[in-house]
Amino acid sequence: MLRLRRNPEPSMPWNDNANPGPWGSPPPGGGDGGRDPGRGPQGGGRGPGGRGPNFNPGFGGMGRRLRDVMGGPGGIRPSMVAALFGVAFFLWAASGVYFVQPNEEAIVTTFGAYSRDEGPGARYHLPAPIEAVVKVPVTDLQRIDVGGTQEQPVPQESLMLTRDDNIVDVQFSVAWKIADPAKFVFTVRDPQASIKAVAESAMREVVGKTDLTDIITKLRGQVQRNSVELMQKTLDAWGAGITVVEVQIRSAQPPREVQAAFRDVQNAEQDQASAVNEGLSYKNRVVAEARGDAAKITQSAEGYKEQAVRTATGDAARFNSIYNEYRRAPGATRDRLYIETMERVLAKSNKVIIDGKGASAPIILPPDVFRAKAQPAPAAPPAPPTDARPVR
């Protein structure tokens, strides 16, 4: 029978006692200074030239203490096993305690299926894997931006085709909140991506039915309302449990490459509208002035007519009264008419006529009688208005 003989360990610098090495010769007494073999200078291992620390005594003590706790060399104590299982069960049962914040609502599932809803406060569910909880922020108003921002635009989302075959760059935001937490949890896998896709699709459909000028100017609010209605209809058909609060268009303008030309067109349209408004304003002003002048002339004519009729009526009545007096006393009436006529004729004259019949004493007249009477200045014609324009 062939036997294998182990070769003696070769002599190396660190195990050759004949070679003291850089630390010198080992001390007498086995090279460890009389200490326990296997221990170093501190009793836990050897110094240079040794084979490392010895942990066997420490592990041995730990093993003995563990065997004492678990029941000694004869086996494990049943009370210790029951205590361990009790602590583990308590920790497992306590893991079902959870808290729902005021803005949240909890959805409890039993083995992955919907079980119940829980409101805010301290709640409890059966620990995993029996029941699980998903918390949903039902009162938070969440927002998604579509089309990017002015600093970082996303042309793939914002460029849309209008009804009049123009391209418009629309950047808008969608505000939404959770209406039905159970449907939201079990129907929608990625809410942000789903709502963004629905919003972009609805906006493209609404923009495709509207002209470019209307989107940019007067029908922006109508476009927003139509987009909200179309988005809500689509999400309800999915059963997503989401309510769209509003759609706000942050920017709606032509693409950057044609903005200058479109701005020129807008300026021309504004100039045209301004000229039309100015013409209408002048027309309304002139027509109003003409109507006022016509009404003034008509009222003057009516007043003159009334005055003439009343004067003629008064003259006729006066003539009739004089005629009746004349029939009663013709001589006295003629004299009175003659005197009244001469008074009217000579009222503006500087001459004084005196009947000399029966005058016995000189007649003294006041000096003011012979002064020239000032003639009234003729009234100046009214000046024509400075803003008068011919009426066409």
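The above is record 1. Record 2 follows with the same two-line structure.
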Amino acid sequence: MSEAEWSGFLVEVVTPRFPDGLSVFDVQGQSRDPASGRVVRERSKLLVVVVFDSPGHRAKVAEIVDAYRRRFGQHEVFRVEQPVCAGV
């Protein structure tokens, strides 16, 4: 995935679902290819969205994960939900 492809995905898919803000980090990832069993290492993105707990937010995250899988041909997308204590 190129930076231009990621930027397009962010603009078209992610931002409309979470317009109030998010963070993106460049990371190095790895996973095991299910077909060959080989460990594959690749540049990746870590997307962080902090929202109030809501079934509507979960659906938006699921839509983003599904769109990412389809667009970039990924067999897995790592997703973590973690309660946090935040203040402004």
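Residues 3-72 form one domain.
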